[in-house]
Automatic annotation (TrEMBL):
It comes from Auraticoccus cholistanensis. PROSITE patterns: POLYPRENYL_SYNTHASE_1. This is Polyprenyl synthetase family protein. The keyword Metal-binding applies. Its cofactor is Mg(2+). Pfam families: polyprenyl_synt. GO terms for biological process: isoprenoid biosynthetic process. InterPro entries: Isoprenoid_synthase_dom_sf, Polyprenyl_synt, Polyprenyl_synt_CS. Keywords: Magnesium, Metal-binding, Transferase. GO terms for molecular function: metal ion binding; prenyltransferase activity. Belongs to the FPP/GGPP synthase family. CDD domains: Trans_IPPS_HT.
């Protein structure tokens, strides 16, 4: 554990907590070095990328796991609980590596995305073939390696805690759900825009959000952390489920808003990147449902253009606002936030855990990055 880290429910995402997670990840990756060196020097840049990509970030999933444990009376200062929580960031970075490749994103957290780093490695090494091919293959394999490492780090921790069964089942479920949710998202990107009507697109976007984001970001980390304390009473399980679904949905809706209206200097992603990628988010589904005629045709012409410039981004933003979609998303964020916080009163949760989960809900809903 990082020196000086004291879990504080009033600051569940404190600098001390983030540093403690980083210490766990750095120590774990240091432990992988001898194995990779024994395989060959070709893996040196792979480990270096793993280190770089796991540095920083909001640490939301580890925080939900740690404070889910505290919410059922567990000790959030237990180093094995911290290690289990930190494993979720290895899983998250693996998803980001694959997500950036799927979306063709150039940057992540203000730095080159993994596939772009492999392309640069190819360009600087004088190798045969194309940088694009190495970028694609390298990102797939790095993402896979990070998934396997997340499993290894989690299993070590839960076995030391002596309660592996339910926690590992929840982790397996989480990995399956987020992968299937990602596939639902990919299918949504290639499906005809008018298939089943505009409201069908809205319904599909909600389904993607629940499986790709809400359960993965909040519900399963919460439940996993709680399971590290042993079997849960039904009322507690239901409270965490309701809180996780509502707060997780609101988190993703905020992400949708930031993907179009966010400040590039804060988000670390180019302004309007979701528009260029043509991401079929709930924000865009609601915008299409709220537009007609020339406005709808113009939005369709702008979204999905890789060369969309600042003026095009501004025009698309204006159309989305005019459709009422931004207002609807902000209302949904507030509504889900209220329902999530209300759920905390129904599970007989420990006070420190309840306070921390309230703070985490506010951080997830009102973030700017």
């Amino acid at each position: 554990m990082a020196a000086g880290f004291l879990p504080d429910p009033a600051e569940p995402l404190s600098a001390g907590f983030r540093a403690a997670v980083q210490t766990v990840l750095t120590t774990f990756l240091d432990g992988q070095r001898p194995l990779l060196e024994g395989i060959g020097p070709e893996l040196d840049p792979v480990l270096a990328m793993a280190r770089s990509l796991t540095a920083g970030g909001k640490r939301l999933r580890p925080a939900f796991c740690l404070w889910g444990h505290a919410a059922v009376g567990g000790d959030p200062g237990d180093p094995d609980v911290l290690a289990a929580a930190a494993s979720l960031d290895l899983l998250h970075v693996s998803a980001l590596v694959h997500d950036d490749l799927i979306d063709g994103s150039d940057t992540r957290r203000g730095q080159p995305a993994a596939h772009r780093r492999f392309e640069a490695l190819h360009a600087g090494s004088g190798w045969r073939g194309t940088g694009t091919a190495l970028g694609q293959a390298g990102a797939v394999l790095l993402g896979d390696l990070l998934v396997m490492w997340s499993v290894e780090l989690l299993e070590r921790a839960v076995l030391r805690l002596g309660r592996p069964h339910e926690a590992l089942q929840l982790a397996q479920l989480m990995r399956t759900e987020v992968t299937c949710g990602q596939y639902l998202d990919v299918v949504a990107q290639v499906s005809p825009l008018r298939e089943g009507g505009d409201r069908a697109a809205v319904d599909r976007a909600h389904r993607v959000v629940e499986h790709k984001s809400a359960r993965y970001t909040v519900t399963r980390p919460l439940q996993l952390g709680a399971a590290l304390s042993g079997p849960l009473p039904a009322a507690t399980r239901e409270a965490l489920q309701q809180y996780g679904s509502h707060v997780g949905r609101a988190f993703q809706f905020r992400d949708d808003v930031l993907g179009v209206f966010g400040d590039e200097a804060v988000t670390g992603k180019p302004a309007g990147d979701d528009l260029r990628e043509g991401k079929q988010t709930l924000l865009l589904a609601e915008a299409r449902a709220g537009l007609a005629g020339a406005g709808l045709a113009r939005l369709d012409a702008l979204v999905g253009r890789p060369d969309l410039d600042a003026d095009g981004v501004a025009e698309a933003r204006d159309l989305i606002e005019a459709s009422g979609a931004l207002t609807r998303l902000e209302t949904l964020i507030e509504d889900h936030g209220r329902q999530g916080l209300a759920a905390l009163s129904g599970g007989a949760l420990a006070e420190d855990g309840r306070v921390a989960l309230e703070q985490l809900a506010h951080a997830a809903l009102r973030r700017s990055s």
